[in-house]
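Technical note accompanying the year-one report. For the benefit of new consortium partners, we illustrate the data format agreed upon in the data management plan: each record pairs a sequence with a structure-token string. No post-processing was applied to the example shown here.
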Amino acid sequence: MTFPFLPVTEIPGFIEQSNLQGQRTAVRLFRQRIRELLQNQ
């Protein structure tokens, strides 16, 4: 999948969250962020 509307600068933050909080939490937060971005388009 690609997310052209997702700023590349946000990706390292999701990777760091995955390392610190676990993959499940990071995926949940990533999905939440994608929903926010889609609603604001």
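Partners are asked to follow this layout when depositing records. Residues 23-39 form the longest helix (17 residues).
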